[in-house]
């Protein structure tokens, strides 16, 4: 009887796997697939190893076991199942690297400037970007958002704190580069000191288990950027947006399946503030299909705000801040460019016509976090919008 029980227990994963395929959603990696039928001796000899890898990745109850192991490692040893996430101090967990293939803490060293510099050609690209847009008759601004490590340096592991607290970062190296032309430099805002001051007052900018920013501090940064770029005193006269608090799961929770690490996040309450908020492709009928491919677009209308339009072109940091600008603008349109490479030439043309319409009543703001701005994410997202500047002229209406 005991032997039968042992055999049954050992067989349970196989039985579960046969009865219901495990989706294996608990890991942030591509799982092994069943090998195709071999067409050569070389392929035939590889089949046993491929079958073994497939069985290891797809046995029954695998997801539950992975989640249980993740919880056990975190509670007993404070460890995450990936080098992409690390524990800091004062209850903060943070994104340590953007890929398991990158060195541990590379996201921190890249933001704080520990043995790193901006990607080659960054200054030259920023110069060209502003020159191209000016040639098109546009006056864009670039807001570079400091990420968690330089803003919350005291929450980093002790060996990183002093270096991340430095006022010198890879972004300041770009801004201080003598090759950066004046017309570009005067249209860039990197509010490192201001965001450190906001955080020091206890106003949240980054929830403690998040990579992206969120919280009431975003409203302050939005107001600072409007005042910095457009001397926007009118928006400051408008009442602040009403807010609500929600408990939200970490935006990097997919990297530690089984752990329920979240934060109470303060966000605008659009309904209570009289703001019409819309997300997704349906918000922009003239861009049908483009919003679906971009995957992160939104529209905000505030009848009580000054009668101007803000176009926000961003990386993934734009999603949570876009709505806060509705205090300052009648219309805020947000487009994330992380998936810009999926657009066809025709779709990029439609997007440009939409973004740059009514230029005389539009403020154009590019918003990228520090890593995105100087490590080619800005270039990948923005370049398709100004590549043909010589043949594109935008008329103000």
TrEMBL record:
Residues 1-16 form the signal peptide. Keywords: Signal. This is AlgX/AlgJ SGNH hydrolase-like domain-containing protein. It comes from Pseudoduganella violacea.
